[in-house]
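Bug #77: duplicate submission created two jobs. Keeping one. Sequence:
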Amino acid sequence: MRREDSLLEKIVKSSSSPWMDGSGTMSDVVISSRVRLARNLRDVEFPHRMDEKSSNAVMEKVFRAVSDVNARKAVSELTCIDLRDVSPLDRQVLVEKHLMSPQHAQSLPGRGLVTRPDERVSIMVNEEDHIRLQCLYSGLELDEAYITANGMDDLLDERLDFAYDDRSGFLTACPTNVGTGLRASVMVHLPALAIGDEVSRVLSAVNKVGLVIRGLYGEGTEGQGNVYQVSNQITLGQTEKEILENLSLIAKQVVAEEKRYRETLMKSRRSALEDRIFRAWGILSNARTMSSGEAVKLWSDVRLGVELELIDGLSVTHVNEILVISQPNFVMRAHGRTMSPEERDIARAELVRRHLATMKP
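Kept job's structure:
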């Protein structure tokens, strides 16, 4: 078995990732931090304008640069994966694990993925830009994610000629990414604000200060399980430091609002809150059929119970795995076949029951 096949098999079979382990600053509310850099090769058309020959040439050039980085042992070893060799189901599992975007999972020529065993680093080749380099860390760790992403960017810059303009900065396929090419985001879990009907107010305030709100799987997705991604909207006219500091400041304010409502619920509605949490635990532990939407909603309540220490003996890491094992493609991958929605609901409930049976609350 090739190394890339072995790593891919390990990733798509595993329900956990280091960025989900509940470590890092403010991880009781901030699930993860992500920094993404958009880069393009000089004098090469953007991916949406390239033909198959050009797309393959870009992928091969990026893969050669990564191989040279590996040869110099500059970072933890990276693995290059040609997405033509990956089944449609496995590509969707990679999306569910946040290693690449839903758009990148589409079967188009010249698309590749670079990642490493800890899944903290991934590079999408020929998505909207030639290179989309992202780093994921658990908790509010934007600086750590940026240091890793910037280091990897420097290594690639030594081997590839990036499109850069002295006035505009890095040139990208979408004008909103021109400049630093940096998009940073924090994934936050806001169940208490949801219970208090305050999510819309808080997220509206975030929008007014130039940040954008997305759902669990990024652009074009909804906030399932009271999980939202808050990210910068502007990359031109601000330094990387300013973008990260502004996002971190707003994230801390959102965290403070969520914690304040958690304290309010514990003081004024504790019995009702405990009932909600333990009902969710009971359904997850015993249900015989369950949709993905219901599973994520119940996960949100159980995770809140763990964060408030109302449920003892459970790790956030183990609870967070429900986010992965409840997703449609992971369910089908675990059973080795495509399924109807009804079959998936039954299989999902079984997977979740089995998973929770190993936990001793």
